[in-house]
Amino acid sequence: MSIVVVGSINMDLVVRVKRHPVPGETLLGSDYETHYGGKGANQAVAAARLLARPTPPKSAGPSPAPGVRMIGRVGQDEFGQQLRNALKREGINVSATLPIVAPTGVAFIAIDEEGQNTIIVSPGANHRLRPEHLSPAEFEGARVVVLQLEIPLETVRRAAELGRQAGAQVILNAAPAQKLPDKLLSHIDILVVNEIEALGLSGVKPDSPEMALEVAQLLTEKVPTVIITLGEQGAVWVSPQGRGHQPAPAVQAIDTTGAGDAFIGALAAALCEGRPLAQAVAHGCVAGALATTKTGAQSSLPWREEVCARLEL
């Protein structure tokens, strides 16, 4: 097993609005759409597509190269069944993604005319994934372990410990933003945050690539390698091997949902293949940008061929 993702699995309910409402205001939006989502599931799909060699077929589900395992929880309901089946169709191992007696997680997403989104998540079954549910056997052979914060924090910590014990490189996407204990950070190799999350962890707003590099340097006091994503400005990284800024390719964004997850999945896939950090960040920036050119979360995630074409590989 090459990549293990431990995290959330949600059904996204998406509505489009001209602008986001202010508190107390009611707006009329479009017909709502359902999309497969959850940060964990999105990142697992993104990684699987970036590891995949064949071009996806037009009708049947793709058959990516094996190597991604998803560990999570869904409900014993229609949403849960749909989400689990969708991961299977992506070629992802879901033997440790179990249906339980709880509602499947749901995300309520509003997208304005500029493509910017606001999201409210009802965790449901995701918050029933406990540390004792994780088995060391599920991490055997992992080269990269990917974590986020839409499951209980103690479960994230246990997953990080098991990843380290398995000899994997452990990536934490610290989203949604919250305070992180040092005991968790001590098991993390790569911390990935956006501008808001970086502000919450450092107390400094990285409002430019130059400032983001300084914030990343500050955060390396707790984690060896720190990456800060900056939307259309790309991303910066600081590691024991150096530091740098990777600009993002110019695209016409229509929906930013899933862009951060595309970045994480591409980063994990590139590192799993043994690419240097700078190259992995470049893969992430391209994948994140391409994801903004399509609607939805998982439906927008790019394939290996698309990213390689942009990178001229």
Helix/strand/pairing category: alpha/beta
Number of domains: 1
Radius of gyration: 18 Å
Shape: globular
Helix content: 25-40%
Looking at CATH, the homologous superfamily is Ribokinase
Number of helices: 9
Distance between the termini: 25 Å
Spell out the key features of this protein:
single chain, 313 residues, alpha/beta, nine-stranded mixed β-sheet, four-stranded mixed β-sheet, 9 helices, 13 strands, 31% helix, potassium, nucleotide-binding
Q: Would you write up a description of this structure?
A:
The protein is α/β, with parallel strands linked by helices and 313 residues long. The protein has one domain: UDP-N-acetylmuramoyl-L-alanine:D-glutamate ligase (3-Layer(aba) Sandwich), CATH 3.40.1190. Helices cover 31% and strands 22% of the residues. The chain has helices at residues 39-51, 78-89, 153-165, 182-185, 195-202, 209-219, 259-272, 277-291, 304-311; strands spanning 3-6, 10-16, 33-37, 68-75, 97-100, 105-111, 117-122, 144-147, 169-173, 190-193, 225-229, 235-239, 242-246. Helix 5 (195-202) crosses helix 6 (209-219). The model is unreliable at 62-66 (pLDDT under 50).
